[in-house]
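Researcher: Hi, I'm a grad student and pretty new to this. My advisor asked me to get structures for two proteins we've been looking at. I'm not sure of the right format, so I'll just paste the first sequence and hope you can take it from there.
Model: That works fine. Here's the first sequence with its structure tokens right after it:
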Amino acid sequence: MSERDETSATFQFAVHNTDGEARRGTLSMPRGSIRTPAYMPVGTAGTVKAMYMDQVRDLGADVILGNTYHLMLRPGAERVAKLGGLHEFARWPHPILTDSGGFQVMSLANLRKMSEQGVTFKSHIDGAKYELTPERSIEIQALLDSDIQMQLDECIALPASRDEIERAMQLSLRWAERSHTAFKTQSDHSARAMFGIVQGGDDEALRVESARALRAMDMKGYSIGGLAVGEPQETMLRMLETVCPELPSEKPRYLMGVGTPDDLLKSIARGVDMFDCVMPTRAGRHATAYTRFGKLNLRNARHAEDHRPLDEQSDCPAARDYSRAYIHHLMRANEALGGMLLTWSNLAYYQQLMAGARDAIEQGRYADYMAETQDGWAKGDIAAL
């Protein structure tokens, strides 16, 4: 049985190899296994934008992400449940992780009002009023039938005052307890997981306090939130160096909303197992390709007569079989196929990056792999950059 096909009747995590702080492991659950380090394509509203689910799977993705906020607004969690759950609805029979909706409430919703109970807000779609509490967030995620559920938390933008960071962190801890209690009422919770979310902004002491309090709750996994919200990369990495040693080594660590290929490689080196980010899909829709040569802007006129593909060595047809000139034309003509091809290529590159990381950790050469990859970006495809 291959690593990808392993399943378990209960949620389990095993670390197979370490190389420094970098870890290679497997998350196993009834719907399948997740090989780590893992990049999770973002399927916010039940779809990975511009992709068929079969394509996403064929690229090597073991898990996708869905979002409580967007799905509760449209089409509604109860409706998704009536239609068989998100896996059947979206034709993705493999693991799904759902975000709690907290970040989107803070960033998208109108006229939101925070309280100890939760947050009330008006939909950015039609102005309808909603209340999202820790219990309701977990209820929605159960209705969606997700395999990995997230606690409701308050994510604030940086920079912020220490008092404001501490207030949000303490509220998030109280919400973590309520979320965890609600999660354990699910009849099949042993086959699923709920992750707590470490908050604390850019304050090391608050991050440690948050991590230790969540660890005491003995959750099945732990996320690191509140980063990739405007802070420099060095701040994010310093927070990871602070937080990861405080989290149990036998449980998965998920860095939320991050990021660039460089962010992923450096975070793996600090002990992170799982990532999600809209960057490869959003960039693809806006003419940017992520490749082993670095980033390429396909709107740039220098690609107009370039017959070469994005990467002739790629296993992905979008990167290997279509010329840069053709994709340039599609993007300049605002043809949907251009964004589809670049999204396909970008997601392929992210999965190739993770597969390479897993192999390198297993071989005990992760530092070399990271250096070789970064050297490829630095040198670039000289004729095209």
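Researcher: Oh nice, that was easy. Here's the second one.
Model: And its structure:
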Amino acid sequence: MNAPHTPAPTTEDAPLPVEALGPRIPLHAPEFAADPHRAYNNMRARYGSLVPVELAPGVSATLVINFHTAVRILNDPYHFPADPRTWQRTMPPGLDMMPMVEWRPNALRSDGAEHARYRSATVNALADLNLHAVRATVEPIAIPLINAFCEDGSADVIAQYILPLVFSSINHMLGCPAHIGERVAAASAAMFEGVDTDTVNTMLNEALLELSLLKRRSPDDDITTRLVRDPAALSDEEMIHQLVTHYSAGVEIPQNLIANTLLLMLTDQRFALGGTAFPPSTSTAIDEILAKDPPLANYCLSYPRQPVVVDKVWLPAHQPVIISMAACNNDPEMNDGQYLRNGWNLAWSAGPHSCPMQARAASLLIVQEAIDLLLDALPEIRLAVPAEELVWRPGPFHRALAALPVTFPPSPPLNIG
């Protein structure tokens, strides 16, 4: 696919460098995390489709907020490759956000033949994932978690329910024993919270190498075993970095999607029981959040091979171009407020680096089961604080609540089995 470009400019219509559009917007600021949609609307009015931003103090990038522009870029890996190594060499050591964006030998950060090799291994490992077994896995994890707080009448459902449920589900799919999973959980949380690169990578590498070696010695019916047995013949180092992707995407995205969907269902009167009409289904709420407030809001980074004109703006070579799935999904050219199940939105990205279909299906099963089990067990659950008092975790990439405190009538524990 050809690179997005404009016709040769006339004197009065010459492209501007992205730096000339206006001051950079700090995506790392708490103010952005508190109200990103207001920020996206202001960006659209002031800058158009491309916005100069900062991912961290002093780290420049361009944010894409137009749906069609984003799709063109995502489908043009030749001009917009995902390999960050040239840019990465210009960054100061120890940058807190680096574990989220640095080069790794995996599909997310590779291009060409290497991308095809890693992507094939990942897709093959997911292909034999039994979605019925995934669904059946969630309930035995969820019920003990609910029973641990159901008699209290209150809980932070992110810390006490959502995160441990999602992580335990992913551990099960990957065949990761609990003693290794606990170390991966600590490292994954540190990655999204911007703990320094060396600490995060050491924590992850040690735990995931141990998991890979375990599956080479004792194979089983799980994703990790299928990865080590794949014809791609992944080395131990490559295995670590395939598993980093499985854990980072497999935990953070469903965790945020569950929390954001629950918040919608607890605050929007359309989902309240007791009216004259049936409330919309959980799957409808999930679809709305994927379109309106996706759990990974800004990501899908690429690094132009050379200066390139996009929408009459010069983008510099090797500087990050980041797609705002949240802003693009709410682009007025695309979204009239109807959140339909037609796959049009960018919550799962697009192009050769998009989320594999089987991973999407497994994530959605975990999310829907987690929500339905909680609401069935505690149907009178309510927010414990006004929605406007909830705190959103700062950071340029995710749309993530720091906590989701709820109240409910104390309830007896559920029967297991």
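Researcher: Is there anything I should tell my advisor about the second?
Model: You could mention this: The domain at 104-292+347-417 is CATH 1.10.630.10 (Cytochrome p450).
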